[in-house]
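Section 5.1 Outputs to date
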Amino acid sequence: MGCCQSLCSDEHQPLGKDGAQPPQVTQNHRGGATTADNGGIGGGGAGGVAGGGIPSFSEFSFSDLKAATNNFSSDNIVSESGEKAPNLVYKGRLQNRRWIAVKKFTKMAWPDPKQFAEEAWGVGKFRHNRLANLIGYCCDGDERLLVAEFMPNDTLAKHLFHWENQTIEWAMRLRVGYYIAEALDYCSTEGRPLYHDLNAYRVLFDEDGDPRLSCFGLMKNSRDGKSYSTNLAYTPPEYLRNGRVTPESVTYSFGTVLLDLLSGKHIPPSHALDMIRGKNIILLMDSHLEGKFSTEEATVVVELASQCLQYEPRERPNTKDLVATLAPLQTKSDVSVNRVIESHRVVIIFIFQSVKQYDLQVPSYVMLGIKKHDEAPSTPQRPLSPLGEACSRMDLTAIHQILVMTHYRDDEGTNELSFQEWTQQMKDMLDARKRGDQAFREKDFKTAIDCYSQFIDVGTMVSPTVFGRRSLCYLLCDQPDAALRDAMQAQCVYPDWPTAFYMQSVALAKLNMNTDAADMLNEASQLEEKRQRGGGK
């Protein structure tokens, strides 16, 4: 098993504006996403694709999202504030193996289901590679949830304020500002100029390390009426006066993001403006950059931030001005490409002149200092069994229920004991397994690990089921390495046992070895197919 990383890029093309009213949605309470008849979005539900690989917008059932997030497990929370956030965001995985981000609102955040659905459809029609696009929603009883593309590489706030290995280099900060300006300009051009509470937590990084603007901020106010969750010191002055968000308010908030990029800190705009007026630009700059930035470029960004933070809204630039100012600063190209061009100047000089600048840029993941994530492997072509389906979406609760029901029927023939081996030690070993089984049924997974370990350590009997069960216990105790070892041991005991391969696939996925996990899932489904044809036990 190797862990090869794909370097394929998935460039999403924006769809055109669709000014039609939100289409009628058909409720589906039996599971699966439903779609509407809307040519601007495209059909296909959770499996449908619109515009460059982005799923078409659709309605999800609550049971689908519950399964995708492992029953909204606290382990799946990706909100920066963890469980303290009023509206939690969960990482999830659909049955088609697509990773998603699910925002779960409090019970009464959106009391009117029609208003929530209309807002979701309004945002869901947008498609752009500078947005973390909204791909669905759920409006089931009191439940209100939004479903978006999952961005695996954290937020701008994490990379700027809480970094561990390296800070963001200057060229990458310029790229962040430019890409977010492009996102805001796209939304404004398409008739949705208002963005609520724009800040460094709303900027996310995708599998390529490219910055994206979260779609969640495009939703209008819910019942709580709050458009800004940050400190009042960062709130646009006009919002404090009248409580309204305007396009100019969004520009003000963009100015605060520029300050974050310049300083590496969350500085109140009033303090930053005092420093700018005093021409203390160097004091404003992030010391962790260690002077590795262009003073001329920094001056341009500081001046733009100052314009965005003007007290009078009419004096602030619009989104097209933001893009026009930041575009010329995108100059960092791939050195290796430039060297090739330089060495073959006579041959390809005319070709080079026609190449767009961004085609030669250093990939964002390189500048961020992160590994490029594997593109999600495709789902096996053959239909999966219930255990296979549970493993493909890493639903540990469903896997547990299936293993309890399966009991030890797959252990037949793996042990042949003589009469002499039925000793007191054997009795103690079987008692340990019995206690482990009881703890496993009662979901006391730590006790189950201890009891199954006693059984395994004696070594008189080998049981693939015990290894499989202990593997799941380790996964539920957040020990994927140990889980993988046990699943491999189960395969050694019973080489053609599909469950051993399924458990390996889950453990590998937990270890972010997605290509290997998909390979194991395929092998397991092949073994199940073989068994159904009579080639297995």
